[in-house]
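Self-study notes.
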Amino acid sequence: MHPLLAFFLSFFYEWWDRKITARIQKRIGPTYGPFGIFQPFYDFLKLLQKEEIEIKGTNNLLIITLLLLAASSLLLSFVFIPSPFFFIEFKGDIVVIVFLSSFSFFLLGCVAYLIPSPFSAIGSGRILQQIISFEIPFLLSIATVICFTESFSFTQIHKKQVIPFILLFPIAFFVYIYSCLGKLEFAPFSIPHAETEIAGGWKVELNSRLLAIVRICKNLEHSLFCILGSILFLGGGGFLILLIKSFVLSSFIILLKNTTARYRIDQALKVFWEKIIPLSLIQIIIVALLK
């Protein structure tokens, strides 16, 4: 997929998120443009135009460099998504996407660590704790599909998926969704930026351009994980069908986000290490034995 297309598509995922969330909470939601579809892009431009308040005691140039690197790595990962417009295919493309998405999240954690605020310090510590916890099941859920298809290529996985893998590997799909909630910082894993607990956490001091880049990074992550999950678990189809399935998957993730209560950090770690990781190991062992 062309990075420019991915950039604009990410705003549609944010609009979809805000629209469904508004309906669940009985609000109107976005209103700018037809059905409010231009509201996320308008908000992004508005943030870019706001006066930037420099965070005392930080190197703003280093922070914006890390944020741009995070956004660039996410945009680069879309180049390997099958698309009729533009994409790069090779045998290990899925490995590159997983690495780039994890690398961008690590960079965001570094940004949180660089901000001298007690809320940011707590948020950055929670980010690092969550990275260690949910990256393992996230990788194992993807490894389940790779082990079954014996391929690291999106195209080959797409061809071998006669029936949706969600029917063959429901545990791996469940683990993938739970891990994505953690990577996206959606409830019940919105712990690093918990507004009612640590006043926004690692993002509380960010403003103007910095906050705009963070928002686009999160939008790109949302769209990437939904498209990736659609390819791995929801079966084949053309590019348009893939996008429709990704929006269905996004709806499910948004529904979970709005109907679950936030865990404490100790509860989240306990859930991943005592339940999610063992489940993902059981699934991949079953696949390995069947193969």
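Second protein, same conventions, sequence then structure:
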Amino acid sequence: MAEKVKPETVASGFERQDLSPRSVYVFLVLLAVGVILVTVLLWGLYDAMDAYQRKHQPTLSPLVRQAQANPREVPADATNAFPQPRLEKNERLEIGNFLLQEEQTLNSYGWVDQKADVVRIPIDRAMQLVAQRGLPTTPKAGSVPPSEVNVVNQAAQPANTSNLPSAKGKK
């Protein structure tokens, strides 16, 4: 008979041979010291590079206009001098006005080009006119539109009047 193997029971708790809490705390303290050390090192490096850059700046030409002290401060009249499109100051207000203007344009009568007699009509009215009149059609493929040459050729052909009584026989 085969012997039944019993699974070994594991003692409750954690295995005490892997890591001690003391080694975890030492690792975390060393990690924090390393982060602080790298931060201080990078701050000093950037400060040194900034000082080097300021020291080696080329001298400006006397023709160059000096910029204002804070380039982020924009005078009120400078926004109008900037070319289109400009940044929006209040996006919701400006898009609302734009959409309202577009809606009025789409739903009103008005001139597009008064000199050329081109007008715009509301979309609903244009749809009604298309429903009444239909869309403009093009001639079917293969059909020749009437031309002046064809009309003249048909008119120039002699008429067949042989079946009609002649005017000479009548007296």
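Instructor comment on the second fold: The chain is about 45% helix and 5% strand.
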